[in-house]
C-alpha cells in the first residue's frame, strides 16, 4: 500500500499520468472514492497521457466510454454510479474488449460482473486537497506499485505498510 497527498488538481493529474506511464500492458483499475473525490480528474489525465486527444466525456449516463489507443489496444472508462444492477454490465458488450486498460469509477456497483482489479486507487477529501491510497490487487499490481513508488514529484505522506 502506498499513500500520496495530492495538494491540488495538478497533483491528481500528475498521479494519473504517472500511473499511465508505469502501467503493465493490461490492467484493471478500480477508482474508489466519494462524489467529487477526483476519480474522473485522474482518469482524464491518464487517458491524455496515453494519447487520447478528443473530448474525454464522463461516462455518467452511458456507463462506459471506449478509446482506441495508439498501441493497438483499447481503454475503457466506466462510471457505474447510475447502474441499476450489476447485470446491466453484460449488455454493454465489453466481453470483446481488447481491454488493455479498464478505469472503473464506482466499481462496487458492478461487483462480480467486473474483471478483478490489478490496482485499487482510493481517493478522499483531505483538507483542501485529496489523499490517494494505492493497493495492489494482483501480482502484476504489486510490481506496478513498486514502479509507482519510485515517483519523485509527488509528496509521499506515509510509508508502505510492512
Ligand atoms: N487534489 C485535488 N485537490 C483539490 N481539488 C481536486 C483535486 N483533484 C481533483 N480536484 C477537484 O475535484 C472536483 C471533482 O473531481 P472529479 O469530477 O474528478 O470527481 P469524481 O470523483 O469523478 O466525482 P464523481 O463521483 O461525481 O464522478 C473537480 O473540481 C476537481 O478539479
Ligand atoms: Mg467522476
UniProtKB/TrEMBL annotation:
PANTHER family: TRNA THREONYLCARBAMOYLADENOSINE BIOSYNTHESIS PROTEIN TSAE. It comes from the Bacteria. This is tRNA threonylcarbamoyladenosine biosynthesis protein TsaE. One of its GO terms (molecular function) is metal ion binding. One of its GO terms (cellular component) is cytoplasm. It is found in: Cytoplasm. GO terms for biological process: tRNA threonylcarbamoyladenosine modification. InterPro entries: P-loop_NTPase (IPR027417), T6A_TsaE (IPR003442). Keywords: ATP-binding, Cytoplasm, Magnesium, Metal-binding, Nucleotide-binding, Transferase, tRNA processing. Belongs to the TsaE family.
Amino acid at each position: 500500500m502506498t499513500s500520496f497527498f495530492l495538494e491540488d488538481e495538478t497533483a491528481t493529474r500528475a498521479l494519473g499520468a504517472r500511473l499511465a506511464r508505469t502501467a503493465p500492458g493490461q490492467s484493471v483499475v478500480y477508482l474508489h472514492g466519494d462524489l467529487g473525490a477526483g476519480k474522473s480528474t485522474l482518469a482524464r489525465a491518464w487517458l491524455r497521457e496515453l494519447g487520447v486527444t478528443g473530448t474525454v466525456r464522463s461516462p455518467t449516463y452511458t456507463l462506459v466510454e471506449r478509446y482506441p489507443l495508439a498501441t493497438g489496444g483499447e481503454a475503457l472508462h466506466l462510471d457505474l454510479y447510475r447502474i441499476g444492477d450489476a447485470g446491466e454490465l453484460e449488455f454493454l458488450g465489453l466481453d470483446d474488449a481488447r481491454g488493455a486498460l479498464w478505469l472503473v469509477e464506482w466499481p462496487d456497483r458492478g461487483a462480480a460482473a467486473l474483471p478483478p482489479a490489478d490496482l485499487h486507487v482510493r481517493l478522499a477529501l483531505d483538507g483542501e486537497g485529496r489523499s490517494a491510497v494505492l493497493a495492489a490487487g494482483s501480482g502484476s499490481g504489486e510490481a506496478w506499485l513498486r514502479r509507482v513508488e519510485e515517483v519523485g514529484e509527488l509528496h509521499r505522506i506515509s510509508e508502505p505498510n510492512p
